[in-house]
Amino acid sequence: QVQLVESGGGSVQAGGALNLSCVVATPTYKTACMAWFRQSQGNEREGVAAFETDGSTGYADSVKGRFTISKDNAANTLYLQMNTLKAEDTAMYYCAAGCSLSRPLLARKRYHYWGQGTQVTVSS
Question: Which backbone phi and psi does 84 adopt, to 5 degrees?
């Protein structure tokens, strides 16, 4: 089991920024193959940004150019810098890890471990 702990959510106005963090609290699991997802009320959980095992990244079209995924391997921490936030970015954001490599990068079924989530609310 891999324990993931998210933080950094909050309430901001449209156009603002937030930086989410996800600490991998299980020392034996390194920050390869990790992702951020989000789920707004009444909607499916959707992939936002992710790392491939080779270090490349992928983003949902809705966040390209505004969100940046990064990681600190030494600190075993994943980040999501979110800029120019919009009301439609309001959601619970989840960190995910533990990949089935045969699945697409931003597919929910690719990941086996999930954090508890951190709420992001953007007011217009």
Answer: 45, 55
